[in-house]
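Notes to self after the call with IL:
- keep both proteins in one doc
- input above output, always
- annotate only the second one for now

Protein 1:
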Amino acid sequence: MNALVRTAEAPSYAISAWPNYNEVMDGLNALLKQPPRGIAKANMAKVLDYFETKCPTSKAWAKRAAEVIPGGVQHNLAFNYPFAIAAAKVDGPYMWDADANRYIDFLQAGGPTLLGSNYLMVREKAHELIDQCGPVTGLLHEYEFKLAEVIRRYMPNIEMFRMLGSGTEACMGAIRLARTYTGKKYVIKVGGDYHGWSDQMVYGMRVPGTGRREATGIPKGATAYTQEVFPNELGTLRRKLMLNRLRGGTAAVIVEPLGPESGTRPVTQEYNAEVRKLCNEFGALLIFDEVVTGFRVGMGGAQGYFNVKPDITVFGKCLTGGYLMAGGIGGPKEIMMSLVGGIGTSSSSKRAFVGGTLSANPLSCVAGYYAIEEMARTNAPLLAGRAGDRLAKGLKEIINRLGLPYVVYNMGSIVHLQTSAVLLMSMRNPIKLMKEANARKHIMEEMGAAYLAHGLLTLAGSRIYTSMADTDAVIDDALSRFESVFQLV
C-alpha cells in the first residue's frame, strides 16, 4: 500500500527540533491543575477601551454583519473578542484593519500564506491569468497539470493529484477513496483532530472523547463507521483495528501528523511511524491530513520530515499560497485512479465520485504553481521555521522571567502559546470540563484581545503562524509587545 518514494533535492524542514513531549505535557498538565491566570480585571478594562476608541469602524461593521450573517462572522478565524476586527489591507508580516491600525499578522489567514501575505510575484501571476482567461472556464487549463507536476516533484509519496475546493472536501474525498479502494467501511481518527466539517468527520472534534457531541443536524448513520482514539494511545488503536477486522476491516486511519489541531495536543515523534506499522499489519490505509503541514513543515510536508509514507495525502491551506479553492488529494497511481474524473468513465470501473465546478480553476492552479515554486526557490519553510524558533525561544524567556505558568513550544513555523490549558481538556475528566471549560475559554479570548490591543494578531490567542516575511526585526518587535501583554496578568 505504500507509495513510491520520490525525494526532492535535499529538502530542508522547518522543524529544527521536535518538542520534548514529556516536558510539554508536564507543563500543560500543571497549567490545567491550577486556577487560570488571565489579564487582571483593571487591566482588561484598559484593553477593552482600545477597541472602543481605536476600532469604531470594525465595531460598526461587526454590528451590521450580525444583522445579516448568523453570529456576525462566516468563519471561526474571524471571531475575536469583544468583536470581529475588519481587515482592510495585508502585506507581508502585517495587517491593517478598517481603522488603519497595524498588527503583526501571526494569523496569516489561518496558515496558508507561508510566503507572507499578498506575496507580490504570485499576485502578479494571478492578475496576468485573470486578464488572459478569467478565473474559471470549465475546461482543462495548462496550470492544472503543472500544479500536479510540481506537487509530485516535491512531495515524496505523490504520483497523482486531484484538486478540490477545500480541506474539508479533500478529507471527505480521501475517506471515500479509501473505502472504495479497500472495500472496507470503518475509519478511525484521533480525538481532537480537525478534518473539516463533513458529516462523517464531525466526531470527536477538538475535545477527545466527545464523539457526536457537535453532530447536531447529522444523522447517526453518517458517523456509524467513524471511530476515535485518544492521541498517542497506540494500544487503543490496535484494539480497534483488531475488533474492526472481525467486522469487515478498517478502510483508513486518518491523522494530523503533528497532533490534533496542528500540534495543540502534540504527539510523540515516533507516533506516525507506529501508526504506519499498525496500518500495514491490519490492511488499513494511512491518510495524512497535511492541510496545514503540507509545504509549511517543508517542501516534502510532514511525511518527508517524519519519513513516513501515507497512502493518501490531503492538501489545503498552503497549496495555493492563500488563494481560493485550496484543497486536494494525492497518492500513488494505483489508489488515485479510483478518483478518475469525467462523464466518460466506464460504469464497470471502481470509482469514488468527487466533483466541484470551481475545483482546479485556472486562478487557483496558477497561484498554487507559482506559490509552491517560490516556497522552494526562497526556502520559505525553513525561513518561517527559524522565525518560529526565535519567537518561541523569546516567549519562553519572557514567561520564565515573569514567573508565569504558561507553556510555549513550536513545530517550526507553528508556535503554540497556551495560557489557560482549555485546549488540553478532554472527556477523561468530564466534571472538570463542564465546570471550567467556559471560564478557561474566556480567559484565552481575553488574552487574544490583549494581543490585538498591543498590535498582535493571533489565532484564538493560542496559535501563531510565522512566515518568511517575519524578519528578526519583526520578531523582536513582537516579543516586546507580548511582554507588555504578559505584564498585565
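Protein 2 (the one to annotate):
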Amino acid sequence: MAYTEKVKDRPTETDAALTAVTPVDGRYRARTRSLEAYFSEFALIRYRVRVEIEWYLSLAAHPEVSALKPILAATAKKLRAIYEDFTLDDARRVKELEATTNHDVKAVEYFVKDRVAAIDPTLPIEMVHFACTSEDINNLAYALILKEFVANDLTPRLEAANAPIVKLAHRYKSHPMMARTHGQEASPTTVGKEMAIFATRLARQLSQLGRQEFLGKLNGAVGNFNAHHFAHTEVDWIAHSQNFVERLGLTWNPLTTQIESHDFIAELFAILMRIDMILLGFCRDMWSYISIGYFAQKAVAGETGSSVMPHKINPIDFENCEGNLGIANALFDHLAQKLPVSRWQRDLTDSTAIRAMGTAFGHLVVALASLERGLARVEVNEARIAEDLEAEQAWEVVAEAIQTLMRRHGMPKPYETLKELTRGRRIDRRVIEEFIATLPLDDGARRALRELNPRSYVGLAARLVEQFAPAAKTEIALVKKVRAAKR
C-alpha cells in the first residue's frame, strides 16, 4: 500500500504535525496557528472574496454605473456576510471550481456569483469582477493581509518581545559589567545600557513599521482602465479607483502595469529584515553572556539539556531564535528582490513567490516565541559579573581613563606610556596605584585616579538609559495584546 493511502482523510493535529512538509506547519504548529487567518489558502480565498464583494458594492453605490442599481443596506449586509462568515466548506467549493477553471481567481469569481444570486436573484451577477484582471483582486487581497497581520498580530508580538529587554535595561541601568570588544575585556559598561541599545534599536524599527504604507491598485489588465472606460465613459474611474482602494484602508497606487509594483512589500520586508538582524545580534550576545556566566538559566523540571551530559542547561531558545530568524530573513530578502521585478506587464513568478511570505512570517513568529521563552528563564548573575570587576587582576581596563586624564593635564605620550604598562598584560590594583603615584598631578586629579576602579568606571551609562531607552510598558497590557493576536 502506498504511503499516501495510509494517511487518514482527516488526520488528527498530531498526525498533521508529523506529516507536514514544513516545520512551521509541523513541529512548530502550536506557535504558528494564528497565521492561518492570514497566510493559509483558506485566508487568501476569503480575502479575495472580500475584495470582490466590496468592489461589487462600490459599483452599486456609484450613481453613473447604470448596470448595477443601489443595493439596500440589508442586502449589502448579507453580501458582506459572504466573506465575514466564510467557512471551510465555502473554501472547498472554491477549490472545486478551481479544479475546472484551473484559475484560482476565476474560481473565486464564480463562487461569488453563485452566492450573490442566492441572496438576491435580481442582482446582475455579471457585474461581479467587472473590468477586473485577477491582479486587481490579488494585489488588494495581499495588501490587506499584510496590513492587518502587521497591525493585529506581528506588531503586538514584536512589542512584547522588546518589553523584557526594556525591563532589563531600566532595572540594571546602573549595574556595572565588564564590556568586551573583539571578545577581549574592555572599559566597563552596565548591564542595562547594553540591553538598552537593543531595545532602542528595536523601538526605532517598530516606529518605522508603524508608518509603513500598504499600496493597492484597481485599474485593469494593463493599468490604464481600458475596459472600465470603454464600457462606462461617463464614470471617473480614476477617482472611483482611488476612493475604493482608500476605503479599504490602503494607499492608492495610480500608476502600475498589470500588477501593483510591490515596492511597498520590499520596503516592509526590509524593515523586518532589520528587526530580525537586531534580534539575531541580541540572541548571539545573550548566548555569549550565558556562556561566560553573566546570565544564568533557570532549570526546568523534567527538561533534558543533553542526551549524555546530565548537567547541561543549553541556551537552546536563543539558538532556536537565531536559526529561525536566519531562515525568515533569507525568504524576506529573496521576496524583496523578486516581487518588484516583472517581465513587461507581468509574469507568474511574483504570484507563486509571494505565497512563501507566510513561511517567512512563520519562522519569524517561531523565533519570537523562542525569544520569549529564553528571556523568561534567564536572570542576571550578579555574583559572576562582580567577579570580573572586583578581581585583583584585570585592572588594565582602567588604562583608558588614566591616559585620557593625562592628556587633559598636558602630560607627554600618555597613550604610549599606558600601552607600555598594560598591553597584553594582566594588571592588578597595586601596579595601577604605583603608576599613579609617579604622575605629577594636582591633588584633585590624583584623588580621582585613586578612587578609580573597574566597578565605578562606567561613565554616563545609567543616564543614557534613563534619557534615551524606551519607557517600560505595562506587562499585563502587552500580554493581553499578544494573546488577542494569537487568537
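Annotation: The domain at 395-453 is CATH 1.10.40.30 (Ribonucleotide Reductase Protein R1; domain 1). The beta strands are 176-181, 184-190, 215-216, 251-252, 295-297, 378-380.
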